[in-house]
Amino acid sequence: MMLTFEDFPPGHFGTFGPRHVTREEILGFAAEFDPQPMHLDEELASRSMLKGLSGSGWHLCSIMMRMMVDGFVGRSASLGSPGVNEVRWLAPLRPGDDLTLDVEVTEARVSRSRPGTGIVMFKSVVSNAAGQALCEMVSPIIMARRKAEQAG
Question: Nearest 5°: phi and psi at 83?
Answer without folding.
Answer: 145, -170
